[in-house]
Amino acid sequence: MSQKEKASPLDLRLSFLAYIAFPLLLLVGLTGFLSLSALEDLNEKRLKEDLELIGRSLQKPMSRALERDRQGALENALASAFSFGRVYGAYLYDAEGKQLAAAGAAKRGRDASKKIVAEAGGMGDSKGEYGQVGGQAVYSFFAPLTDSSGKVTGLLQITRQLSEIQEYTNTLRVYGGGGLGLLALALVAVTFLGYQRTIANPLAQLAGSMRRVAQGDLSHRTRENGPREIADLSRTFNAMLHHMERDRQEIQQRRENQERLQHELRQSEKMASIGRLSSGVAHELGAPLSVVDGMAQRMLRREDQDSSTQEAFHRIREQAGRMTQIVEQLLTFGRHSEGNPRPVLVERLTRAVVRNARETLEEHNARLHWESPDEALHVLLDPFRAEQLLTHLVTNAAQAAPDGVIEIRWENRGSEARLTVADNGSGIDPEIADRLFEPFFTTKPPGQGSGLGLAMVHGIVEEHGGRIHTGTSELGGAAFWIFLPTAPAPAGDKE
């Protein structure tokens, strides 16, 4: 990183003070200093003009009194100068510069030189200058006195202490400087408060939001307030978080789909392996079972056996028959053939299964209720496999809910049909829910189930492009929801 690209060591607040507040203060101070200097000059000029105004107001009466040589009138005129206030001393000189009369703090001033009298008379106007009177620094205003012919006959001097002028100036400096300082402080305070409210607080809020996101709270969104630029930044930040959250969900969804596909692939490979093993075992067991059953049947035809021996052969045939059924299930499970899928009317299918399962329902004293949509609903299934699927679910429900209620319901959902088989039994233990469709897994006592029924149901559903879910039914027991593709009614189909 180059030297220019390095971050400034100052934070935003100090940068604001260094680059905005302090230069603003310097500008205000310089402007105030120049304005105060101009005001001081203006004040000093005004004080001088006040003194000149007093001198001019006495100039004509004193000129007439001097022309008529009225000493009392001169002294009274000089004394009247102090009625205006702010006058230190008043002095009257003749044309030679000799003092004729004086009034004020310093009764005795210096004699005015002929040069001063001559200069004032030559200009025909007054003049002012700084000097010393009675040991005090003063500002003097000189006004020439003339007779009726315009000849200079004397000179009037009105003085004011320089310290008084300086006192006014100092007072002006104190008040002006104080006011300027208060103005600067108020300006800085207002500017800083404005910065804090419009810039610092929104940026601090945005930084806090960034910290929350950095700590993992991706659902957080910052408030979009403050000036337009910061609000735009907040909106951009929220939009970035939205895209991040969407991308994260997409990645999570893809990961879940990949895991599901991998699981299904492993399950399919496992089921295929089990299917091949089941087919092999079934073929190997089929012939010996036929021999055992045939020999038991021949022995039963003999008349020289007692009842206990005949009972034993009946038991042999019964168990051989049961094993034959298991072998047939193994063969069916291992075959995994889609058969001949075609549109199957769900009402006709359900009625056939209910008729076939009547014996099982009566054996377990279970009551079955079923319903189908008002309009004819067809699903794309192999009819034989469809009966197998529904028969296994009804049989499983009857065994799980003896003396209970079983419900079958078909629903049309557009491109899919949903089959619900529910009961009011003990339900599905969450700990075994993931193993329900595994081959040879059963919760029934030994000798009462092969563990292939639900595995076959799962296989049939997948073979026909459907899906199956389990859960708790509205009746309180187990529920199986099967989604199958619908199909248009074949021409000429009647119930």
Write the layout of secondary structure elements.
Elements: H1 12-67, H2 71-80, E1 89-94, E2 99-104, H3 114-123, E3 127-133, E4 136-146, E5 152-161, H4 162-214, H5 228-301, H6 307-335, E6 342-345, H7 346-356, H8 358-363, E7 367-371, E8 378-381, H9 383-400, E9 405-413, E10 416-423, H10 453-463, E11 467-472, E12 478-485
Helix pairs in contact: 1-2, 1-4, 5-6, 7-9, 9-10
Count of strand segments: 12
Strand content: 15-25%
Shape descriptor reads: rod-shaped
- Please identify the structural class as seen in this structure: alpha+beta
Our count of helices gives: 10
The CATH class of one domain: Alpha Beta
Report on the architecture of this protein.
This protein has helices at 12-67, 71-80, 114-123, 162-214, 228-301, 307-335, 346-356, 358-363, 383-400, 453-463; strands spanning 89-94, 99-104, 127-133, 136-146, 152-161, 342-345, 367-371, 378-381, 405-413, 416-423, 467-472, 478-485. Among the domains are: 12-171, Beta-Lactamase (2-Layer Sandwich), CATH 3.30.450.20; 337-485, Heat Shock Protein 90, CATH 3.30.565. The two termini are 83 Å apart. It is α+β, with helices and mostly antiparallel strands and 495 residues long. The strands form three sheets. It has a five-stranded antiparallel β-sheet with strand order 2-1-5-4-3.
